[in-house]
Amino acid sequence: MIYAINYDLKRPGQNYDKLYDAIRSCGEWWHYLGSTWLVDTPLSATAIWERLAPHVDKNDLVLVIGVTRNYSGWLPKDAWEWLNSRITKMAAWGRQGMRVQGAVIREQGQTFAIVIVKPHVVQNSVMAADAIQSFTPVFGVPVVLMAQDGRGQPTFYGRRDIARFLSEVPLGAIPWREYAIN
Fold first, then answer.
1. Are residues 142 and 173 in the same domain?
2. I need a surface site. Which of 41, 82, 145, 167 has the fewest CB within 10 A?
């Protein structure tokens, strides 16, 4: 999803470098207008705000809002190319819905979900936490992430008791299936 991050920073002379770093950490970004950034990210608007909030003053104003196909303005050609390429990708993704490989497991009185993600997600605690936060409402149960390295060795990220349990379960014994998330 592409989000526009717009701000009105009220404190002249304040060093906002940490705010700008927090914006950059959200995903691929474009920054051509003085107080507007566009960020292509899997994060929600709330998750983006939670990253930015520690770096703004109480009198600053910030708006994080999703970008739709309905946009217009006067920008340089490379700005339109950046935006259009991502909007096109987002539209294609939206028509198909998101598909993930995972499983819902009921074991020893516990129900939880496991979702397969790319290795870089479980290697980055912020991305992993954001993924878990995004998948939990979909499944309605605690979620653990799993990624495999080049040799097929799994790494689990999530609740430690569940991750520890899963590390002892052969991957072939897990009832994997594809889930469509809209």
1. yes
2. 167
Report the number of distinct structural domains present in the chain: 2
Q: Name the domain boundary from 72, 95, 118.
A: 95
- Domain holding 105: CATH number? 3.40.1350
Mean pLDDT over all residues of the chain? Answer: 85
Confidence (pLDDT) at 89: 61
Q: Which of 61, 95, 129 is the last residue of a domain?
A: 95
| Residue percentage of the chain with pLDDT more than 70 | 92
Q: Which domain holds residue 146?
A: 98-181
Confidence band of 80 (pLDDT split at 50, 70, 90): confident
